[in-house]
Amino acid sequence: MWLSLGFVGPLGTNTYASPSISCKRCLQTSFLGVAVNANKLQRRGAFYRTPCLVPKLEPIVAIRHGDRLKKLGKPADQRKALIRALTTELLRHGRIRTTLARAKVVRSFADKMISLSKEGSLHARRQALAFIYDKQLVHALFEQAPERYADRNGGYTRIFHTMPRKGDNAEMGVIELV
């Protein structure tokens, strides 16, 4: 349970850090409204052992677990199918128009497919066949991409911002092969 300025006292009464308290931490908490974990305070016995109502505050940090791939507002199976379809169409047509969030996700997968085609091994070809929907497209990619992108080590796509979509004002863009 997170509290802002008030703390639950021993009898359930609210105990506020008032400006008349001489403790610096209590004063800072009362004026800044820093969030403090009440359970941690009670476990430490801070209400009974110390004259200070607030122990040393620890910063609240958001952890970036599972933040590698945008979720795109879809379940995992639909998201994977969407990314595969957009990557296939980008490699087939050379340029597609989509939302910026989708374009940024597709960029990494398209770059990976082109890197696999530059590698040219049988294992790389099978990995590309497992991801791209069109078998003839994979064969064409493995024939043309190594000489087209021989001087590049990455950055095979570019994204342009375009006008927002009419209807929901979503940010749109064009992703194309360099």
From TrEMBL:
Q: Which GO terms describe its biological process?
A: translation
Q: Name one GO cellular component term.
A: cytosolic large ribosomal subunit
Keyword Ribosomal protein assigned to the entry: answer is yes
Which Gene3D superfamilies does the record cross-reference, listed alphabetically? Ribosomal protein L17 (3.90.1030.10)
Q: GO molecular-function annotation terms?
A: structural constituent of ribosome
Q: Name one Pfam family in it.
A: Ribosomal_L17
Q: Which InterPro entries has this protein been placed in?
A: Ribosomal_bL17 (IPR000456), Ribosomal_bL17_sf (IPR036373)
Query: Please, which domain of life does this record's source organism belong to?
Result: Eukaryota
Alphabetically ordered keywords of this record? Ribonucleoprotein, Ribosomal protein
Family to which the UniProt record says this protein belongs: Belongs to the bacterial ribosomal protein bL17 family.
Q: Which HAMAP family match?
A: Ribosomal_bL17
Name of this protein: Large ribosomal subunit protein bL17c
**Species this protein is from:** Galdieria partita
